[in-house]
Amino acid sequence: MLELVRVVAPLGLAAAVSPVMLSEQAVVVGGRQGRRTGAAYALGTVLVLFCVTLAGWLLGRSLKLPSFPDLNATADLGVGLALVVAGALVAYHRPRQPRAAPHAPRSMGLSAAFGFGMVSMATNVTTLTLVLVAVKDVAAAGQPAALSLAVLSLLVVLGSASAWVPVLLAVLPGQSITVMAKISGAVSAHARQIAIAVLLLAGAFLVFRGTAHFVHL
Questions:
Q1: What is the total count of domains within the chain?
Q2: How many angstroms separate the CA atoms of 86 and 195, rounded?
Q3: In this predicted model, what pLDDT tens digit does every residue of 31-69 receive, in sequence order?
Q4: Contact 171, 35 (CB under 8 A)
Q5: Which residues span the domain enclosing 167?
Q6: What is the C-alpha to C-alpha distance for residues 123 and 207, in angstroms, rounded to an integer?
């Protein structure tokens, strides 16, 4: 299990880097009934990520990835190259005007916050891509279902960290919400650079891993 966690954890942590989701959650938590609506927002993101993770794992098991390691390595190469190209395109394309911070209503009900969280995760392409790569690794490992589900649960927790960490910080005493808002502002100001770094680093890692398999390094 530890070996599988060692493989999955870096991808889960990379998937957790979501400036948009962090900024949205900071606004939700800072609004009226912030802790409750923030928890609803986080629950929505976790639900979507859990469903995607479970579906990806079931698909991987049906494809019998442990019996086809070349398919696993080919997927690494394909996804890795796609991420590198996406990162290069984002770096090359400079917006004429600075992108406005993601908008999230400061006052919303629990159901609205829950739906907002679901939409935010469902449209978070980078996070979902990295999580699905990790899910593929779990499916390819061919471990018992109980062990695989435990590792996948850890992956969901890591991948949705941008949504639930602000809620935990809001529970702390003091000026935690103010601090969270400042962190969110700093992250939003460098969102483009963060996205480029995540795309290029994750892509390079997957390309190296896929190539290493084919040359037997």
A1: 1
A2: 10
A3: 777 788 989 999 999 999 999 999 999 988 887 766 556
A4: yes
A5: 2-215
A6: 24
